[in-house]
User: Which sequence fits this backbone?
């Protein structure tokens, strides 16, 4: 092989990747006959895995090329392992993410552990949550109704980690109401927490509305052994307070409850934190993303087909059966706004949350 | 009675039965391959169950799960590698039996007691239905902590006559379990700024690496067959001999089955620890312990009876409360949710026939699966007498893929090799490995329950709980019994301790003792600045571990001083030569893993098989080609097409 031939070969070889990339940057990737993997970051069989499986079934009907879509669990690392898996995947349309993200508290991590969510190709978000604070009935301590809470000497509540949005807000709410509190960590999920409450290890915990409506309301609440206190939701339409959830009859969002028991509207840094989480934590449980660098036109196709899939009756019916309620679906603009707000969280808000986490950890 | 009949009719419905048998077949297959297991089989079929009737879905899922803890015996006995996490303890005596040409006896005993365990677990589940909620609510965090302590005391039972080294290995396992996020704080521990370690070391590479890699090093270096004797030499070896052993030890099997049921009921403990507890019980309750660790059939019967009974137990918190005690139960819970079933009183009232059909499915799966394995085992047993170098390549591929499937990261394989090398060193130095696994498995449960107890209870509240007082009394009884046995030197039996002591093994043991001592001191110092609940457990482990490691080091120094070499080759150099070929096999494994990022996972595996057979096994190229092609096909069909495992592409395609 002479020198010139070698140079030509090297030059041709160098062009191959360029030829491969050039069209991809400008057009929708052809997925016909391909397999697309949706990576989720929780254990198989849980609500994250199941809802992403339902979405995969619906999405394969609407995505261009009708690829086969499979769901893969990459769990661990406090949810970060799956997120990083998608972050580091090739932007070839073959890998997507359906990730429980906890962006609002993840921003508190040291810089080296932070995840730049804004770098993802954002597609949408699913599953807004409502969390209800509740407590065991305890006549000996004077706890007979929701209005008795401010007179309670101490409230012990449980959760998995001090870093979860609902747990931090519960602590803030108790401070605003003047109730001394203790946080018990290490209990993951509604059912272990409910077992711990029934064993008397904790007084209550921020429970998801789905579990409250399916299990607590017809069970302990109806039997009079448990009392719902107030709930945290997304902001109301004008952004001045929390929205009212019509499915939670007889209960008030925290701001209205606070006004009812104290006679004044909530204010101050604690209330600001509750509203911050209402804006950035509650609207989205699962972020749906493509790896950074995914071509714009392909992203646009993904956003449109995602919207079509998640509005399908088949998906909505399955999701309602799974989650106990029809999940809210957020689209690109709303998701982008949330990701941007989290990325620009003021230092004072970050510090306030760190202070609370510090108090909750022992 | 009406509900029972309805449950039976649901389970025996034609289609349900068909799905159950399909699940059993899948479970048999997945349980037999190290690193896969029943949970992977459940993950595989879960999406298909969405459109089924609930009883069909649960028949398929439970069939796949129930029998995987029976077929995992094959790998434990034949290869010395736990087929699943539930059959770790079976390795100790089961594999020794295989080496003695008593494979069929081991299988006969294991499959019989597995069926018994499964049936007892199913019946216990049925009988516990009315008191399910009470059972779940009785055991709080303090009870879990004391139960874990009882489990830890069993270290004595799985340490043979090397109690000090056993405690040290147990403490090492506990310390390794502390890597990653703690329960009550948000800063990870001992993670060296590596995302791979942020959640701790994955379980599968630790378990299969600790036993599997050293076993393959040994098999590859010996060049012989798995069984040391010829098939014909073990004259009394037969399935029926195993069955007779099982019935002769029926009370041991029954006690261990009950133990399996009730430990299985405790979320987080379950199958991963119950086989060790049962093994420990088998040892403690035996009059003659001299054969444990050397191929005592009771060392197979105890864990195998217990691990099949755990499924019935673990269904109790899942059905009663929706508390999934294991990954498998989380999947089952997911299937319940998708079928609109809510765990709790409704499962005992409105859906009682369905609940009872699950019980029937578990019992049926265990009986049918054990029967099928009995028939199949004669063929499997012959594998013990084939050339070991034909076994090593396929098993190494299974070990790699079994680790990879849970966490597809090259560092997982580095961990597999590192743990494997540690397992080899421990074995060569006369340190028992089971306590390390026991510590590793129990560590998170103990820390979690300790942290919750510390946060939610006062001392007075803990010690006023009747269940705590009963469990503490039990702990004291077991501890005193174990201490007395040690004092009377009743435990003069060896478990997992390779060969007789030599100058080299004593020197290696000393190096290990000093290394773990340094590790404990370093880990203690690291923990000083952490929050109270983050540091209290690792510091306690390090304190105990460091003291015992110091004692072990002192004993080793004394033993080395008194040691009289046996022959000219009993030197450090001789010890090195004795293990040189094993280290060469390890180097081949390491090179294969190192090449994965360059040539890709699939090519590295297929290439390894081909080159190993040609270069190390001295087989003909055609044999290598056919074998490598078969492995490649298996990787493609099972791992790529069925399980959607992400393969690392070659560097030039990445």
Assistant:
């Amino acid at each position: 092989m002479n020198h010139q031939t070698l140079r030509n070969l090297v030059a041709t070889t160098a062009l191959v990747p360029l030829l491969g990339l050039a069209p991809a940057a400008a057009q929708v990737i052809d997925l016909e006959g391909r397999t697309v993997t949706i990576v989720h970051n929780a254990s198989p069989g849980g609500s994250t895995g199941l809802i992403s499986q339902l979405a995969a079934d619906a999405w394969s009907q609407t995505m261009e090329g009708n690829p086969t879509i499979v769901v893969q669990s990459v769990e661990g690392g406090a949810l970060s392992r799956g997120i990083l898996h998608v972050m580091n995947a090739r932007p070839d349309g073959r890998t997507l993410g359906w990730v429980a993200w906890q962006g609002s508290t993840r921003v508190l991590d040291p810089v080296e552990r932070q995840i730049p969510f804004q770098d993802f190709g954002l597609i949408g978000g699913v599953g807004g949550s409502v969390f209800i604070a509740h407590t065991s009935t305890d006549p000996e301590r004077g706890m007979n109704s929701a209005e008795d809470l401010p007179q309670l000497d101490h409230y012990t509540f449980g959760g998995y980690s001090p870093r979860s949005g609902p747990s931090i807000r519960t602590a803030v709410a108790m401070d605003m109401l003047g109730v001394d509190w203790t946080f018990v960590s290490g209990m993951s999920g509604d059912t272990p927490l409910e077992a711990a409450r029934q064993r008397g290890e904790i007084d209550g915990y921020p429970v998801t509305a789905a579990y409250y409506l399916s299990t607590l309301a017809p069970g302990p609440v109806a039997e009079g052994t448990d009392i719902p206190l107030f709930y945290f939701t997304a902001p109301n339409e004008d952004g001045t307070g929390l929205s009212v959830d019509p499915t939670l009859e007889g209960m008030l969002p925290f701001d209205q409850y606070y006004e009812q028991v104290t006679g004044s509207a909530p204010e101050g840094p604690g209330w600001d934190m509750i509203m911050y989480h209402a804006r950035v934590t509650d609207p989205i449980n699962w972020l749906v993303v493509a790896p950074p660098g995914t071509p714009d036109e392909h992203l646009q196709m993904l956003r449109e087909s995602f919207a079509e899939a998640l509005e399908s009756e088949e998906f909505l019916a399955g999701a309602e059966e799974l989650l106990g309620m029809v999940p809210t679906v957020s689209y690109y603009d709303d998701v982008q706004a949330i990701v941007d707000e989290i990325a620009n969280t003021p230092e004072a808000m970050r510090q306030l949350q760190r202070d609370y986490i510090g108090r909750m950890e022992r | 009675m009406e509900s029972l009949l309805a449950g039976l009719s649901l389970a025996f419905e034609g289609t349900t039965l068909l799905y159950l048998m399909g699940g059993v077949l899948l479970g048999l297959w997945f349980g037999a391959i190290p690193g896969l297991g029943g949970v992977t089989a459940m993950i595989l079929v879960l999406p298909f169950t969405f459109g089924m009737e609930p009883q069909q879905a649960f028949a398929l899922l439970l069939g796949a799960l129930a029998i995987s803890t029976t077929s995992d015996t094959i790998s434990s006995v034949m290869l010395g590698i736990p087929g699943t996490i539930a059959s770790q303890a079976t390795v100790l005596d089961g594999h020794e039996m295989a080496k003695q040409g008593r494979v069929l006896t081991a299988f006969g005993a294991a499959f019989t007691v597995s069926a018994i365990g499964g049936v007892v677990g199913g019946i216990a589940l049925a009988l516990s239905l009315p008191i399910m909620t009470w059972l779940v609510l009785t055991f709080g965090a303090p009870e879990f902590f004391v139960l874990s302590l009882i489990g830890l005391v069993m270290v004595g039972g799985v340490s043979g006559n090397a109690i000090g080294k056993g405690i040290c290995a147990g403490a090492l396992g506990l310390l390794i379990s502390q890597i990653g996020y703690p329960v009550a704080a948000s800063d990870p521990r001992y993670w060296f700024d590596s995302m791979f370690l942020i959640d701790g070391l994955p379980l599968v590479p630790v378990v299969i690496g600790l036993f599997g890699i050293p076993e393959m090093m040994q098999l590859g270096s010996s060049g012989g067959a798995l069984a040391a004797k010829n098939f014909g030499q073990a004259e009394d070896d037969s399935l029926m001999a195993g069955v007779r052993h099982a019935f002769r030890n029926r009370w041991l099997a029954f006690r261990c089955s009950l133990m399996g049921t009730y430990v299985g009921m405790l979320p987080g403990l379950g199958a991963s620890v119950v086989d060790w507890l049962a093994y420990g019980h088998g040892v403690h309750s035996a009059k003659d312990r001299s054969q444990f660790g050397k191929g005592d059939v009771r060392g197979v019967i105890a864990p195998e009876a217990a691990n099949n009974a755990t499924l019935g137990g673990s269904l109790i918190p899942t059905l009663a409360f929706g508390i999934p005690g294991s990954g498998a139960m989380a999947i089952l819970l997911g299937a319940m949710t998708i079928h609109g079933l809510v765990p709790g009183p409704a499962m005992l009232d409105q859906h009682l026939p369905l609940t009872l059909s699950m019980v029937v499915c578990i019992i049926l799966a265990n009986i049918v699966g054990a029967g099928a394995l009995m028939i199949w085992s004669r063929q499997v047993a012959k594998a013990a007498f084939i050339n070991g170098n034909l076994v090593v390549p396929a098993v190494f591929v299974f070990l790699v893929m079994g680790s990879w499937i849970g966490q597809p990261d090259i560092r997982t394989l580095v961990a597999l090799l590192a743990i494997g090398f540690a397992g080899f060193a421990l074995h060569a130095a006369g340190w028992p490995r089971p306590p390390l696994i026991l510590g590793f498995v129990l560590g998170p449960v103990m820390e979690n329950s300790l942290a919750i107890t510390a946060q939610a209870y006062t001392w007075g509240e803990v010690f006023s709980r009747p269940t705590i007082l009963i469990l503490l009394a039990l702990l004291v009884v077991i501890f005193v019994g174990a201490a007395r046995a040690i004092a009377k030197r009743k435990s003069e039996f060896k478990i997992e301790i390779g060969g007789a002591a030599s100058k080299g093994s004593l020197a290696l043991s000393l190096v290990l003792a000093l290394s773990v001592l340094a590790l404990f001191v370093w880990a203690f110092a690291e923990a000083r600045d952490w929050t109270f609940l983050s540091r209290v457990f690792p510091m306690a482990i390090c304190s105990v571990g460091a003291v015992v490691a110091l004692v072990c080091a002192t004993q080793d120094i004394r033993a080395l001083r008194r040691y009289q070499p046996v022959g000219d080759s009993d030197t450090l150099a001789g010890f090195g030569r004795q293990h040189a070929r094993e280290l060469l096999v390890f180097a081949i494994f390491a090179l294969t893993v190192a090449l994965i990022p360059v040539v890709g996972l699939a090519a590295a595996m297929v290439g390894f098989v081909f080159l190993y057979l040609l270069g190390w096994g001295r087989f003909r190229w055609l044999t290598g080609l056919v074998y490598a092609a078969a492995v490649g096909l298996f990787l493609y069909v099972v791992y790529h097409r069925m399980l959607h495992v992400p393969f690392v592409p070659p560097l030039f395609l990445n």
Remarks:
- Residues 24-499 of chain B form one domain.
- Residues 532-562 of chain B form the longest helix (31 residues).
- Chain B has two domains: 24-499, 572-653.
